[in-house]
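Problem 12. The chain below contains 130 residues. Write out its predicted structure in token notation.
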Amino acid sequence: MARLGDAGVDLAAINAAIAAPDAVGIEDSSQFIKKSEREKLVRRLNGLRHGPSAGLYRGGQPLDLDAMRRPDAPGKTPLNIIYLNALGDDERKQAFVASLATEIYRWMVSSLDAGGGRPNLLVYLDGLCS
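Solution.
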């Protein structure tokens, strides 16, 4: 089993450490989190790894603002539509929108070109909640 300090730790290793904290050197885990809460967290992480939500983290198009801003032809303005209703429930939609906001912020602080006299990006959210 990978140790929590290792660089190659993935969700499976984290889940295993939560399920069996003594295996990673945590003697009395109850001082940090109740056993019932640990078990609930293990179930939720298993759901993310193996359940219907697992597909959200594999395959598909990566969230890449630079690629989304790149026009298909010179002089054209790209338009990207992200359909959130395929995500099912509000929790998944909110998680995606949070990821999108994080990516927009990362892009703003690392790549934003403030010149040019025209907007670099326009984001419009409609109907986020059911």
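Discussion. Residues 1 and 75 are 53 Å apart (CA to CA). Students who got a different answer should revisit the alignment rule from Section 12.3.
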